[in-house]
């Protein structure tokens, strides 16, 4: 995206004064030298109009406006600033469900004897734990039960968002999508104000999943997009969130719709790999060595925002952005007004990543201990098989327990069946709409 494009883009009045030339890390506050990373996908979607988002969903009120923090050079954490160890979940966290290496047809990072890694981790570090979920209030419990009743009454869904689109019966995939935690995420996304609206949004997502062809995007179709490792899932943060690295400098394909399909494909695999009790992910974005030509346009960013905001609500746990060049700084400034106020505190600029991710599962270039080299032949097949193995176990549990709408994701991922009904979103997690291709959008 050129500077001219950014200047033509409308920027809301609340864009803070802090986003000026002096806040550009590349020219005035360079981050510590790091090995070259590389491009995240840049997508040509100018012909695709994003679904309008209502003002009530995205526009911040006067009291909600949050100034965009000025990116600063990555600090060295002091003892006083060290992150406090998260509280252990009251229920015992189950051991990884993967079979021993001798009985599997894929390898994980745990199987490699040293900190030199070529494949993804199957489970979080022993020090990482999801925060315990808060209990629902009586009013929230009643709203959840009402939404569950409404969802169980759904029998068919349109195959597209067109007004007169054909409707087809619910599939097992549709029913399995509507877990207890899924329903709670949509209730939180509507701020617990309207059960009927939450139901409509779930139906809209089921329609989108059909129209987008989400389950038809095979590893073979997506693989060319990831040959350079521009998106990598590796390790888990302090709260057991899977870490998805975006590397804009490793862009390797021309603009196309497949680049956005790549994003949603990786999102689905990240959610497959997440351990019991974890609903969100961590995005780690490194702009080092990326060029302005690899950045998305405002229009492209809005399309991704629309997908993530409407169809992946409450999925972003944290986004860590480092080595921000001047042109990415301008891009962030332009989209800042569109980022939900609840999401903004989750975006961290040029912070020491080891404050958020255990060093034992963090790359060396970000102050970690892992020496990772992206070898596509080794990484891709093992990543795909790991995600498929976890997904297979998830589906088997769902079918074995009666194929119920409203089943517990905690149980389906290997946790204990008797998990109390809870809000399951400590710290009010926002949707994963924040940042792809170098940071797109996130919102509740």
Automatic annotation (TrEMBL):
Residues 1-136, 420-444 are annotated as: Disordered. This is CRAL-TRIO domain-containing protein. GO terms for molecular function: phosphatidylinositol transfer activity. It comes from Orbilia ellipsospora. Residues 25-50 have a biased composition (Low complexity). It comes from the Eukaryota. Residues 221-374 form the CRAL-TRIO domain.
């Amino acid at each position: 995206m050129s500077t001219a494009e950014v200047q033509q883009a409308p920027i809301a009045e609340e864009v803070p004064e802090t986003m000026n030339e002096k806040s550009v890390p590349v020219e005035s506050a360079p981050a510590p030298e790091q090995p070259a990373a590389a491009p995240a996908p840049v997508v040509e979607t100018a012909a695709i109009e994003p679904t309008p988002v209502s003002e009530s969903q995205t526009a911040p009120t006067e009291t909600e406006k949050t100034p965009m923090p000025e990116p600063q050079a990555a600090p060295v954490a002091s003892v006083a600033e060290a992150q406090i160890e998260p509280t252990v979940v009251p229920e015992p966290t189950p051991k990884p469900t993967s079979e021993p290496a001798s009985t599997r047809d894929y390898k994980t990072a745990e199987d490699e004897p040293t900190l030199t890694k070529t494949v993804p981790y199957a489970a979080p570090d022993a020090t990482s734990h999801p925060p315990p979920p808060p209990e629902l209030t009586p009013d929230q419990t009643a709203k959840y039960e009402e939404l569950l009743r409404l969802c169980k009454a759904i029998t068919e869904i349109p195959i597209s968002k067109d007004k007169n689109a054909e409707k087809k019966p619910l599939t097992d995939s549709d029913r399995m999508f509507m877990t207890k935690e899924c329903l709670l995420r949509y209730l939180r996304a509507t701020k617990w104000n309207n059960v009927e609206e939450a139901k409509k949004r779930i139906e809209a997502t089921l329609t989108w999943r059909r129209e987008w062809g989400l389950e038809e995007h095979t590893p073979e179709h997506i693989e060319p997009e990831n040959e350079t490792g521009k998106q990598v899932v590796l390790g888990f943060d302090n709260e057991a969130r899977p870490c998805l690295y975006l590397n804009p400098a490793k862009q390797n394909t021309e603009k196309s719709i497949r680049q956005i399909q790549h994003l949603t494909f990786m999102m689905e695999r990240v959610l497959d790999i997440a351990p019991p009790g974890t609903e969100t992910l961590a995005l780690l974005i490194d702009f080092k060595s990326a060029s302005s030509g690899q950045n998305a346009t405002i229009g492209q960013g809005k399309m991704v925002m629309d997908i993530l905001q409407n169809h992946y609500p409450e999925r972003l746990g944290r986004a860590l952005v480092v080595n921000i060049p001047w042109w990415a700084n301008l891009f962030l400034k332009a989209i800042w007004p569109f980022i939900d106020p609840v999401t903004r505190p989750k975006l961290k600029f040029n912070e020491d990543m080891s404050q958020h991710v255990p060093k034992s599962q963090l790359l060396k270039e970000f102050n970690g201990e892992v020496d990772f080299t992206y070898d596509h032949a080794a990484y891709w097949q093992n990543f795909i098989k790991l995600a498929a193995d976890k997904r297979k176990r998830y589906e088997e549990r769902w079918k074995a327990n009666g194929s119920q709408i409203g089943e517990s994701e905690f149980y389906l991922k290997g946790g204990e069946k008797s998990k109390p009904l809870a809000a399951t979103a400590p710290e009010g997690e926002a949707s994963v709409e924040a940042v792809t291709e170098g940071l797109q959008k996130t919102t509740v």
